[in-house]
Task: inverse folding
């Protein structure tokens, strides 16, 4: 089999693999659309002017990178110099060619081998909108019209080609939805970003351009039975088969017998392909439902996550409504439920004279009082800020990536208070605190302090 590289220039793909591939692609699309607007080649001055406009409109972040080429190194930043340089390089790479007319006008023409690649670039940049209706209508018009009886050698080829395009476009749509489903699985973003991806990206690229057109069109159900009947009639019509095979053999320079078999194979393939579309459509519907379900679940998970404020409120509401919590956990408080109304149920104003014993607070335990006093003392000294707590942890794990067990940090009540604040700052998701906390199973006892086992790790700096 002949390789594609025997027909393409050796340096053909260099522009799309160079550091300036984004600029090369943009310039190729500019020229391709100019070429489509002119019946013949485009004058070189017009191409250079459009290329210069492109380079003049670039921002500082889109500067052209230097390539390993003496000619590119010598080029200045002026837009017209860059435009001329890039045009010469596209000519040398084999994408376009220059010709000189009789009036000495230089014209830039498109190389034949580059046109399929430019069409693909244009389709990707524009976002190809699949025309399902046009394919199925083309198959119906080719096989069910009067032209099929007289020129079957052309109509069967055309119908077979459009059938292939229809099935191919449906498979591409299925894979496109599948890729979006996988991206939604991997997406770790807040709720606004999930909504943007769903309604701005997915709806625009998949639903509006392809899925809605496919589901709102009745061409498949309307035309498929008629196409099947027409194919069945052609397969039974020996005179039509013989006449069509003879004309097709002349066009393709083959024998009549092989052309007859080819016509029969194409008709059967068209009929079978149209029958086999239903599983693809069901798979497309299933993947679209899966995408919607996944995005909804991601939003619901964030709304009801126990780590968020909304999740904590939802958890309290479930507990107060006497629903079972995860792991059988319960809250230490409840809501008093009235069985009946009595005089004591009504609100009564407090008396001005309050009994002295009612104002006396219960004496706190010694350990709690000592911890509260230490916390107040440290707060007054301004030592419970994130920066001060980070300095405290740096005594035990200063190097990035190092870690230390919490039990090694407690030796008195002041260090115990600092440990409590360190765990609180380290649990925060957003913030510059340089340490992370990792909770472990079990309780530990250090002196007279008892707490859950955990350790702190210094975060690595993000470059």
Result:
């Amino acid at each position: 089999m002949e390789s594609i590289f025997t027909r393409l220039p050796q340096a053909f793909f260099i522009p799309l693999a160079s550091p300036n591939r984004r600029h090369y692609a943009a310039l190729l699309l500019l020229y391709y659309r100019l070429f489509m607007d002119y019946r013949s080649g485009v004058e070189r001055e017009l191409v250079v002017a459009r290329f210069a406009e492109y380079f003049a409109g670039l921002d500082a972040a889109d500067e052209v990178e230097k390539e390993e080429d003496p000619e590119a190194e010598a080029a200045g930043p002026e837009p017209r110099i860059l435009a001329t340089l890039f045009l010469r390089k596209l000519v040398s790479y084999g994408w376009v060619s220059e010709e000189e007319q009789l009036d000495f006008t230089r014209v830039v023409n498109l190389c034949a081998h580059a046109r399929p690649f430019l069409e693909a670039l244009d389709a990707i940049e524009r976002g190809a909108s699949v025309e399902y209706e046009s394919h199925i209508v083309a198959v119906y018009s080719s096989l069910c019209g009067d032209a099929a009886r007289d020129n079957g050698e052309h109509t069967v080829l055309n119908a077979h080609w459009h059938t292939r395009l229809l099935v191919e476009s449906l498979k591409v749509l299925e894979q496109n939805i599948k890729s979006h489903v996988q991206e939604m699985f991997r997406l770790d973003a807040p709720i606004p970003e999930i909504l943007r991806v769903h309604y701005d990206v997915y709806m625009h690229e998949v639903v509006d351009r392809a899925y809605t057109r496919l589901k709102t069109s009745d061409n498949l159900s309307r035309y498929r039975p008629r196409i099947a009947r027409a194919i069945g009639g052609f397969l039974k019509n020996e005179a039509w088969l013989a006449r069509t095979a003879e004309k097709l053999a002349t066009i393709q320079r083959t024998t009549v017998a092989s052309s007859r078999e080819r016509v029969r194979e194409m008709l059967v393939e068209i009929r079978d392909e149209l029958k086999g579309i239903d599983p693809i459509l069901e798979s497309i519907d299933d993947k679209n439902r899966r995408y919607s379900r996944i995005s909804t679940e991601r939003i619901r998970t964030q709304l009801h996550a126990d780590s968020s404020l909304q999740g904590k409120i939802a958890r309290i509401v479930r507990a107060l409504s006497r629903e079972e919590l995860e792991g059988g956990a319960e809250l230490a408080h409840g809501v008093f439920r009235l069985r009946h109304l009595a005089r004591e149920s009504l609100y009564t104003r407090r008396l001005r004279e309050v009994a002295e014993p009612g104002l006396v607070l219960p004496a706190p335990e010694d350990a709690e009082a000592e911890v509260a006093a230490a916390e107040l003392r440290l707060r007054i000294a301004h030592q419970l800020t994130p920066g001060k707590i980070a300095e405290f942890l740096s005594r035990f794990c200063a190097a990035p990536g190092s870690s230390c067990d919490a039990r090694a940090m407690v030796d008195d009540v002041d260090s115990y208070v600092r440990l409590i604040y360190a765990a609180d700052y380290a649990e925060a998701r957003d913030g510059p605190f340089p340490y992370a906390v990792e909770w472990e199973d079990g309780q530990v006892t250090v002196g007279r302090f008892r707490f859950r086992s955990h350790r702190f790790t210094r975060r690595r700096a993000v470059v």
User: Anything to note?
Assistant: The CA atoms of residues 245 and 260 lie 5 Å apart.
